[in-house]
Design brief:
The structure holds 3 protein chains of 3 kinds. Chain A is an all-alpha fold. Chain A contains 5 helices and no strands. The chains are: A mainly alpha, B alpha+beta, C alpha/beta. Chain A: It comes from Alishewanella jeotgali KCTC 22429.
Chain lengths: 129, 237, 589
């Protein structure tokens, strides 16, 4: 493109920091990305639990007591919700990236898989059957 | 029946930044946003600048933001909006004037992905391509280059160097074509920092695409291809 | 004013212009090819072509058959030497496009699928679903990016050709985003600016199809040939004129009047073909001129229906079924749902004829050469002689390719060794135009350019529509002359430089009025009915080969008026005969 002088003065609106508040679609996207934060807390709990195990019984007992506090339970409930939300978005996106089967079938398959794994783990740790 | 159209006007010869102007436009069941713009230009203000041509959603000229969502003016109807609607130039592109944005960056990105069939065959007869092979890339060949997906992509807004949805769709279109042998030449662009990995799958591009060809899927299918390509290159001597 | 020197200028980035640019770049990779377009190339109106591109493909088909269909379709006004060349070159050009990646629709075995089209004896139309023009344009545009020799100048509006002593020197162009003038110098200029459908009120064309290139050449003394022949497409959507492809009928769609009767059988196109079994050259697969004329007759007889104030008939696709519609006519379904709120699966689509194509254009030789040395024209803006008095659907997309390539190659092969970098003649001419441009601006106006344009399109629709008579055309001419005078007195009130829409519309209208006048004058002087030119005047309702087996040539006289001359039609092997379709054709054969 030849240089053009004079009158041309393109205006570029820089993207503001709050761009994701502009539209509910972006808000949902940021929510999806933000699900990592509660998950971080959960991972921290888990690591602390492991560490306390290595420190002996009393340490482990106090970790259990910490985990039983209402606010910790509430936070972990939030973790569960966030993970489920993330799973939902992920399961819906996946068939678009790997279109192997019709999308509804793949979405249902992924939920079924999640359910089976969950049941297996619950069984393994004796919570059921 | 009338509706109020608020247009973000910008005249580079007078204004520092765009500012809103209101117009009253009559409408009926079939009045499109493009019809409204033409009415304003013909009846109220001949200085209003916007692009249009085919008025049947195939030339890709008339992309604008309608209530902050990228739309083709000719395929968006006043009947679907409340009494007031706001129209502005496509987000993330420099505005030349009023509703006209500079699309040069998009065309550069398109050119960068080598958007043509690469194949050395000297055959004088057509290739064979079964309907199933055609179907693999057919959807992605329907991109009308309207730029709505770029206006919907915050990653492109943050980094204009990002190849962006439509260019990557077109790269995928050729990569998936059974007649093409140019994938190896396109992968460096797609693997690069402004290629597929700059996409975080916001996915809004798929919502706004007037041809429903799911650019987000194309980009993320590109990630699979890119990852495979990089893995292979690691293990190749 | 900036000056650019280059080797070949292509004006227009549609199918013909892109094909010409690519051919030139392949012939002379070292040449500098400047591709100017007033819009980004992929916006060009080639994009809206739906149905397909014709070339003899099936074993049972023959070049002779394609030749005969085209010549008969043209009502014997086609240049038969040109048609011979065209049908021979057609197949290889479509294959070339296939090699560039065009997603042609396929048969189960992977070979090319062909479909039926109006006026064609057998299936020979290649297609890419119902978006053939779109795919051709994007394939060519994207392929053009492969050639470093091609340098795009997007959104440049050509104001004038620079010509001295019957030799083209370049063009004078306005860069739309800056308002800057550019003198672009080259020994070769190829015009590929498209048709002039926007001269009419109801048309299938995009807003950019304003006849600019025709006027550019005409103002420099090049003849516009056969301008009176304007194709009405029988199936446009009411109001907008949006095109519903002929392929809809090729796939089996039928036309019904308000009583649900297939009226075409009353106009020499019968007998009625059974539902779901379309037959070439019968009923709905008759040529476009005959079908549009049948609509007019139905309207006169009060047998058309009303759709929001527009007279319409119906295109019924319901019997094709959901699956075939989705596979073969997806775009038609989308258009119908969006623009008339009708689902073709459930209801027939209201349609009416709308101006679609200008058969006439800049007079050229076989390779696109015009009477000005170094100036070429290709595509809809040109009249190479392929379409005569009526174009067959799917011949024009192939035309873009065959003749675009020919012109690009010819221009590249005949480049002079040393192009001129400066030219006083060009500079003088450019400065004159610059002064003229400056004089166009003024204060706020009583009248708007838009209102003059509307008056023009209505006058053309009234006077030079599907059927014409002496009185109507004379009235049209009077209106056009008056509009020219009004426009000359009008000023552009917007003084801005960047994307001055009012200025561009002024220039387009001044081009358009000039072209409209040649059309009207050519039509007035053709005292017969042939192809798309149908007269109601007593004694003129039939073809008259005695006096009018001739091309009309419209020249611009010194006083600005249209001067007409005539040119004999080149007939190589198919002498004029009655032009019949349906059962009558069978009897004649």
């Amino acid at each position: 493109m030849p240089d053009s002088a004079g009158a041309r003065r393109p205006y570029l609106q820089p993207l503001s920091r709050s761009w994701w508040l502009k539209h509910s679609f972006f808000l949902r996207y940021m929510l999806r990305e933000a699900t990592v934060l509660p998950l971080l807390f959960f991972c921290g709990c888990l690591l602390a639990g492991l560490y306390s195990l290595s420190q002996g019984e009393s340490q482990y007992q106090s970790w259990l007591a910490f985990m039983a506090q209402p606010w910790v339970i509430a936070l972990n409930a939030l973790v569960l919700l966030a993970s489920l939300y993330h799973a939902k978005t992920f399961f819906e996106l996946f068939p678009r990236v790997m279109p192997l089967l019709p999308a509804p079938l793949m979405i249902a398959g992924q939920w079924l898989g999640t359910l089976l794994v969950a049941l297996f783990l619950l069984w393994l740790f004796g919570a059921i059957g | 029946m009338e509706k109020t159209i608020i247009i973000q006007r910008y005249n580079p010869e007078q204004d520092q930044a765009p500012s809103a102007k209101r117009y009253q436009v009559p409408f009926d069941h079939s009045t499109s946003v493009l019809d409204a713009l033409l009415y304003i230009q013909q009846q109220l203000d001949p200085t209003l600048a916007f692009r249009w041509s085919c008025r049947m959603a195939i030339c890709g000229s008339c992309g604008v933001m309608v209530n902050k969502i990228p739309k083709l003016g000719c395929k968006t109807f006043l009947r679907d909006y409340p009494a007031e609607l706001t129209i502005s130039a496509l987000d993330h592109f420099p505005i030349e004037k009023d509703l006209i944005s500079d699309m040069a960056v998009f065309l550069d990105h398109l050119q960068a992905v080598k958007p043509y069939l690469i194949n050395d065959s000297q055959n004088t007869e057509p290739h064979r391509q079964t309907p199933a092979q055609l179907k693999k890339y057919q959807k992605f060949s329907s991109c009308i280059n309207c730029g709505l997906c770029y206006a919907a992509c915050p990653q492109f807004g943050l980094n204009p160097e990002f190849l962006g949805p439509a260019a990557i769709v077109t790269a995928q279109r050729y990569n998936l074509d059974s007649r093409d042998q140019g994938k190896a030449q396109r992968m460096p662009q797609l693997n690069g920092k402004n290629g597929v990995w700059a996409c975080t799958f916001v996915g809004f591009c798929a919502d706004v695409c007037p041809k429903q060809l799911d650019p987000a899927a194309a980009v993320n299918q590109g990630k699979v291809a890119s990852a495979t390509d990089m893995l292979i290159s690691i293990f190749k001597p | 004013m900036q000056i650019i020197t280059t080797d070949i200028i292509v004006v227009g980035g549609g199918g013909a212009g892109l094909r010409a640019a690519i051919a030139a770049a392949e012939t002379r990779p070292d040449a500098r090819i400047s591709l100017l377009s007033k819009v980004y190339p992929m916006r060009s109106h080639t994009v809206a072509a739906e149905g397909g591109a014709a070339a003899v493909t099936l074993a049972e088909d023959s070049l002779d058959a394609h030749f005969q269909d085209t010549v008969a379709g043209s009502d014997w006004l086609a240049d038969q030497l040109v048609v011979e060349h065209f049908v021979k070159a057609a197949y290889q050009e479509l294959v070339q496009l296939e090699h560039w990646g065009c997603p042609w629709s396929r048969k189960a075995d992977g070979s090319i699928q062909v479909r039926r089209f109006g006026g064609m004896k057998t299936e020979r139309t290649w297609f890419a679903a119902d978006k053939t023009g779109f795919h051709i344009l994007h394939t060519l545009f994207q392929t053009s990016m492969k050639y470093p020799a091609i340098r795009r100048l997007d959104e440049f509006f050509v104001l004038d050709l620079l010509v001295s002593e019957q030799q083209v020197l370049g063009v004078l162009a306005l860069q739309l985003n800056s308002g800057e003038l550019f003198q672009i110098l080259a020994p070769k200029v190829i015009l590929a600016t498209g048709g002039a459908g926007r001269l009419f009120h109801y048309n299938t064309n995009g807003g950019i199809v304003t006849g600019d290139g025709m006027a550019l050449a005409y103002r420099h003394g090049v003849a516009l040939r056969d301008m009176e022949f304007v194709q009405y497409h029988p199936t446009g959507l009411p109001g907008s004129g949006i095109l519903i492809t002929e392929a809809a009928r090729g796939e089996g769609g039928i036309l019904l009047n308000k009583d649900g009767y297939r009226y075409l059988q009353d106009y020499g196109l019968g007998p009625e073909t059974p539902l779901g079994q379309p037959q070439n050259k019968y009923m709905e697969l008759g040529p476009r001129d005959k079908l549009s004329q049948a609509f007019w007759q139905q309207q006169q007889a009060g047998l058309t229906a009303d759709y929001q104030g527009h007279a319409v008939v119906y295109l019924d696709l319901r019997h094709l079924g959901v699956q075939k519609l989705a596979e073969r006519l997806p775009f038609i379904c989308e258009l119908s749902r969006s623009y008339v709120n009708i689902d073709p699966v459930q209801q027939p689509i209201p349609i009416r004829p709308a101006v679609h194509y200008t058969m006439g254009g800049i007079l050229t030789e076989l390779q696109g050469e015009t009477s000005i040395s170094g100036l070429y024209a290709v595509g809809e803006c040109a009249s190479v002689g392929l379409h005569g008095a009526n174009r067959l659907g799917s011949n024009s997309l192939t035309e873009l390719l065959v003749f675009g390539k020919a012109a690009g190659e010819h221009a590249a092969q005949s480049l002079p060794p040393m192009p001129r970098s400066q030219s006083t003649a060009a500079t003088e001419q450019a400065q004159t135009q610059q002064r003229r441009l400056a004089s166009l601006f003024g204060g706020k106006q009583q009248q708007s350019i838009a209102s003059l344009r509307k008056a023009m399109t209505l006058a053309m629709e009234q006077g030079c529509g599907i059927y014409r008579d002496e009185q109507g055309m004379q009235q049209c001419r009077t209106t056009l002359v008056s509009l020219q005078q009004q426009l000359a007195g009008l000023k552009v009130s917007d003084h801005s430089k960047v994307f001055n829409a009012e200025l561009i519309q002024y220039l387009e209208l001044s081009f358009g009025l000039e072209v409209a006048l040649t059309l009207c004058e050519s039509a007035l002087a053709r005292k017969e009915s042939r192809g798309a030119h149908q007269r109601l005047d007593p004694g003129l309702t039939q073809r008259n080969d005695q006096d009018f087996l001739q091309h009309t040539l419209a020249y611009r006289a010194a006083d600005g008026r249209v001067a007409l001359r005539y040119q004999p039609v080149r007939i190589t092997c198919l002498p004029p005969a009655a032009r019949v379709y349906g059962a009558a054709a069978k009897q004649g054969a």
